């Protein structure tokens, strides 16, 4: 995945948070995120 390009992360909600979710989201947004927010944002 490339944070410079549009990406989608689809899930049925039954699995744990994918390990690349937070790093990719943090890289593609202009504002910084805290790792502790990953669960809430997911």
In short, what is this structure?
With 42 residues, this protein is mainly alpha-helical. It has two helices and no strands.
General description of the model:
This protein has 42 residues and is mostly helical. The chain is 29% helix and 0% strand. It is built from two helices and no strands. It has helices at residues 21-28, 38-41. The model has no long low-confidence stretch (mean pLDDT 85).
**Regions with pLDDT < 50 over 5+ consecutive residues?**
none
Shape: flat
> Termini, distance in Å?
18 Å
Radius of gyration: 10 Å
Average residue pLDDT:
85
The helix content, as a percent range, equals 25-40%
Instruction: Supply the helix-strand structural class.
Output: mainly alpha
Sheet with the most strands? none
Strand content: under 5%
SS element count, helices: 2
Give the SSE order as H and E letters.
HH
Total count of strands: 0
